[in-house]
Every structure is written in structure tokens, then in C-alpha cells.
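Section 4.2 – Deliverable D4.2 (structural model, holo form)

The reporting period included a commitment to supply a predicted holo structure for the target in complex with adenosine monophosphate. Inputs used:
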Amino acid sequence: MDLSSLIRDIPDWPKEGIVFKDITPLLASPEGFHAAIEKLASEYADAGITKVMGAEARGFIFGGALAYRLGAGFVPARKPGKLPWQTTAVTYELEYGTDSLEVHSDSFGEGDVVLIVDDVLATGGTAAAKAKLVTETGARVAGFAFLIELDFLEGRAKLPADVPIISLIHIV
Ligand code: AMP
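Output (C-alpha cells):
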């Protein structure tokens, strides 16, 4: 199945020079969404994943489905101030300024084997920050799963070299 035909390019959104990858046509396609989750799950079926981590909002959609399919738990990473209990936070660089993500401090334990999921791997800053949150709480990152990777931004260079990175669609 050609998943890339279900991604809509929105030029100059949210600002000039950015081509936004709109995944809503894929989400709305029963066959497309199913195929994407099945393919990502098959890549990590034998990895012993215990927890899938995704950040709001699009990481929740893929992460939740993938966790269910892998028989793993799901851990939400959220913007500061959204989680109600004790949190662990990480701050990371954006093109202009910084941003932060938080998880509940008891989300991961030492035995956890974690898969980090998002729709798009762009510069890699967000995925690297999520990996830091996982390792800081004592768990191990066993893989990254993305629907789309913007290869020309070389985001995978920011991620640990010894951890598998699977992207279903590559934009060169
Ligand atoms: P990154 O630059 O890899 O830290 O990406 C930051 C976040 O923005 C990720 O969660 C991506 O899903 C999202 N993102 C970055 N670039 C795009 C794009 N061109 N289209 C859609 N989402 C994007």
C-alpha cells in the first residue's frame, strides 16, 4: 500500500518555508491507518517492548494504537503543566528558543524497554529529548518509530547511534 499518497503537503504552514506533512488523510483511511500501525508493529514485534511513549498530540494517536498492538503500556509525554502528578521534565532547543516535555516521574522503571513514537522525524530535537526522559528515569530506549522522516534535515544524527530507527516514508 502506498502510504505516501495519503500524506497531504501544506506549503508555508505554520510559517513560510515549511512544508507541513498533514497526516489526517492517512488517519481517516481505514486501510491506510491499519497498514501503518501493522507495519510499525511488525518491525518491533520481537523487541520485547514494555512501554510505548508518544507526545501530544499526534504521538498519542500512533503511540496508543502501537502500544495496543504490541501488548505494551502507553506513556504520554506532555507540555509543561498538563500532567497532574510528580513530573520529570526535559528542555530542548527549537529553531528559535526552547520547548519542554514532561512525563510522570513513575512512568518508567529500570526493566522497561521503550519504543518512542511520533508522526514526523524532522530535526530530531524532540525525539532526542524524549529519549533523555526515558533514560533519566532508568529505562532503556529500544527503538524509534516514525511515519515520516524528513531525511534532508538529518534528524537521525541527533539520536543514539545504536538504537534502531524505523520510518515508513522517507522524504529526501
Ligand atoms: P523535530 O524537528 O524533529 O524536533 O520535530 C518537532 C515536531 O514537529 C515533531 O513532533 C514533528 O511531528 C513536528 N514536525 C516537524 N516538522 C514537521 C513537518 N514538516 N510536518 C509536520 N510535522 C512536523
